[in-house]
Specification:
Largest sheet: 8 strands, parallel
Helix content: 55-70%
Order of helices and strands: HEHHEHHHEHEHEHEHHHHEHEHHH
CATH architecture: Alpha-Beta Barrel
Distance between the termini: 54 Å
Number of domains: 1
Strand content: 5-15%
CATH topology: TIM Barrel
Number of helices: 17
Structural class: alpha/beta
CATH class: Alpha Beta
Shape: globular
Strand order of the largest sheet: 2-1-8-7-6-5-4-3
C-alpha cells in the first residue's frame, strides 16, 4: 500500500501542522483524526482564519448569545471565542507535545495586529494571552517587524513560547534568529527555561509579488523565473539557519541545553492556478523544519503529493535564482519589507472584518431573541 504522502513528510523528518481551526472540528473528531491518521502535530491560526471560521460556523451561536446576554462584544468577544478554541485544540495536541518532548504539539494564537508596531503593547498582550490560555503548548504569534524583535527577545527570555510570523526574506529571518538567541541567553543567565520558538517564513505571497514584477518585464529570461522566488528564498533561509546555528554564540547556548528555533513554512497554498497545488510541500522537504498547511492543501497532498528530501544541488540553484532576480532589478530583501507591511495590513483588515462580523451576528440575535 502506498504511504500517505503526509505521513511520508513526517517519515522524512518534517513536521506537519494544520493552518486552520474550526470549532466543529474540535468537537466532531476531525482534528483528532488528522492527528492520528495524517500525522498532524500542531496548529496555527491568525485573524483571517478566525474571521472565516466565525463568520461561517454556526457552532459559535450559543457562545455569542451568552456573551450578548453578559454584555460582552467586540474584541473581548473575539478573544473569548478564540481562547476557548485554542485551549481545546491545545488539549487535543497535548499528547503530541508530551511524546515529542515538547518539539511539536503547539497551537498558535496571534496578538492583535493593531499593535504590530508597538513593542510594549505586544509584550503586555502576549503575556496576558499566555496567562489566559494557560496551556504549556501555546505559542503566541508575534509579527517579525522591527518593533516585534525586542518583544520576541523579552518573551522568550520570560519562558513564553513564540511563533514569529510574517517573515518574507532572509534578512528578516536573520533578525529573528538573533532576537531568539538573545532571548535564550537572557533566560539562561536568569535561570529561566527559555520559551520554545518557530520562525514562520511565508511562501506564496513572495511568488505572487515577484511573478507580477517578472510579468511586467515581458522578457523570456524573466518568464523563466516565474514561481521560483519563494522556494529560493526559503532554501536560502535554511542555509542561513545552518550558518547561524554553527556560530560560536549558539554553540555556547546549545552547550547549556538550549533548543534551536525551528523554521516553519507558512502560506503554503499556491495562489497561481498554473502551479501545482502541492508545490510548496513537495519542494521544501527539509528535516527538522515544519510545514503548516490549510485543510484544502492538506487534502491535496494526501491525494497526490510526492514529497522528497531537498538535495544540496537545489540549494545551489536557489543562489543562482536569487542572483538572476537581482540582475533583473528585483531585490528579495527589499520586496520582503513590502510584503511584511502588506501582511500586517491584511491581518489588520481581517481583524476589523472579524469584529464587524461579530457585531452583525449579535444584532441578528437581538432581533430574533
Amino acid at each position: 500500500m502506498k504511504q500517505n504522502p503526509l505521513q511520508r513528510l513526517v517519515t522524512l523528518g518534517q513536521s506537519v501542522w494544520l493552518d486552520d481551526i474550526r470549532r466543529a472540528w474540535l468537537a466532531d473528531g476531525t482534528l483528532a483524526r488528522l492527528i492520528e491518521h495524517d500525522g498532524v502535530s500542531g496548529l496555527t491560526s491568525n485573524p483571517a482564519i478566525f474571521e472565516r471560521s466565525i463568520s461561517q460556523d454556526r457552532d459559535y451561536d450559543d457562545a455569542i448569545a451568552a456573551a450578548r446576554r453578559a454584555g460582552i462584544s467586540g474584541a473581548a468577544l473575539y478573544e473569548a471565542l478564540a481562547v476557548d478554541d485554542i485551549r481545546r485544540a491545545a488539549d487535543l495536541l497535548q499528547p503530541v507535545y508530551q511524546t515529542s518532548r515538547k518539539r511539536d504539539g503547539y497551537v498558535s494564537l496571534e496578538v492583535s495586529p493593531d499593535i504590530a508596531d508597538q513593542t510594549p503593547a505586544t509584550i503586555d498582550e502576549a503575556r496576558r494571552l499566555w496567562a489566559r490560555v494557560a496551556r504549556p503548548n501555546l505559542m503566541v504569534k508575534v509579527p517579525g517587524t522591527n518593533a516585534g524583535m525586542p518583544a520576541i527577545r523579552a518573551l522568550v527570555a520570560s519562558g513564553i513560547n513564540v511563533n514569529v510570523t510574517l517573515l518574507f526574506s532572509v534578512a528578516q529571518y536573520r533578525r529573528t534568529v538573533y532576537a531568539y538567541f538573545d532571548g535564550v541567553d537572557d533566560a539562561l543567565r536568569n535561570g529561566v527555561p527559555p520559551g520554545a520558538s518557530v520562525a514562520s517564513f511565508f511562501l506564496s505571497r513572495i511568488d505572487a509579488l515577484v511573478d507580477h514584477h517578472l510579468d511586467s518585464l515581458h522578457a523570456p529570461r524573466a518568464t523563466a523565473l516565474r514561481g521560483q522566488a519563494a522556494t529560493a528564498c526559503a532554501r536560502l533561509a535554511y542555509q542561513e539557519f545552518k550558518r547561524l546555528y554553527a556560530s560560536p554564540y549558539w554553540q555556547a547556548l546549545a552547550a547549556r541545553h538550549a533548543e534551536p528555533q525551528r523554521l516553519l513554512w507558512a502560506s503554503t497554498s499556491t495562489k497561481d492556478e498554473r502551479y501545482s497545488d502541492v508545490k510548496y510541500l513537495d519542494d521544501l522537504v527539509i528535516p527538522r523544519t515544519i510545514t503548516t498547511v490549510p485543510i484544502e492543501t492538506l487534502a491535496a497532498c494526501r491525494d497526490h503529493g510526492s514529497p522528497a528530501l531537498l538535495i544540496e544541488e537545489k540549494l545551489t540553484e536557489s543562489r543562482a535564482v536569487s542572483a538572476e532576480l537581482r540582475m533583473l532589478g528585483l531585490d528579495l530583501d527589499a520586496l520582503g519589507e513590502v510584503l511584511q507591511c502588506e501582511g500586517v495590513h491584511k491581518f489588520r483588515s481581517a481583524y476589523q472584518q472579524l469584529l464587524a462580523t461579530l457585531g452583525r451576528r449579535i444584532k441578528v440575535q437581538q432581533v430574533t431573541a
